[in-house]
Amino acid sequence: MKTGRRGIVRTAVQVAVLAFLVTPASAEPLELFGYAGVMGEWELTASVREGSGTKDLVGPMTMTHVGICTVDRPEEKKGEIRVQISHPASRISATLLFDGVECTYSGRLSDFYSGTMNCPTASVPLKIWLK
User: Which residues of 57-78 are buried (b: 16+ CB within 10 A; e: fewer)?
Assistant: First the structure.
C-alpha cells in the first residue's frame, strides 16, 4: 500500500509542478523612451506589456512636445503603442495610435532603435530606447 501512496503523491507533485511551469508569469512592464522629429522636438514615453494572445507588446503612450516653440505648457498627445521586436532584437516595428491617427514605425538597433515614424500627413525620424 505504501507504494501506491508514493505513486499518488509523486503524480500530484508532478501535476503541481507542471501547472506552475505552464502558468504564464506576469512579466514586468518594459519602458520605452524616445524622441521624434528632426530636432527631437517630441518626447515619447510608454510602458508596455505582452498583449493577451499575442507576442506584441502593448501599452499606453504619451508624446510630449519638448521643442523651444511651446506656448504656455507643452502639448501632450496620449494614445497606445503596439510593438513587435524581432529575434534577435536587431529590428523593431510599432503601430502608434493617438488623436484618431495611426502611424507606423520601423527601426534598426545600434545604440538605440533608429527609424522613421510614418503618419498619414508626415514622416519623421524616431529614436527609441528600451529599458
Answer: bbbebebbbeeeeeeeeeeeee
- For strand 76-85 and strand 91-98, is the pairing parallel, antiparallel, or unpaired? antiparallel
The SS3 call for residue 23 is coil
Strand partners, 64: 43, 76
Specify whether the CB–CB gap between 29 and 119 falls below 8 A.
no
DSSP letter string over 66-92? -STT--SS--EEEEEEEEEE-SSTTEE
CB proximity list for 65: less than 8 A, separation 6 or greater: 41, 42, 43, 74, 75, 76
In angstroms, the CA 85 to CA 50 distance is 11
Between strands 76-85 and 57-65, the pairing is antiparallel
pLDDT tens track for 75-120: 899 999 999 999 888 999 999 999 899 999 999 999 999 999 999 9
pTM (predicted TM-score)? 0.74
Tens of pLDDT, residue by residue over 47-71, are 999 987 778 999 999 999 998 876 7
The position carrying cell 528632426 is 38
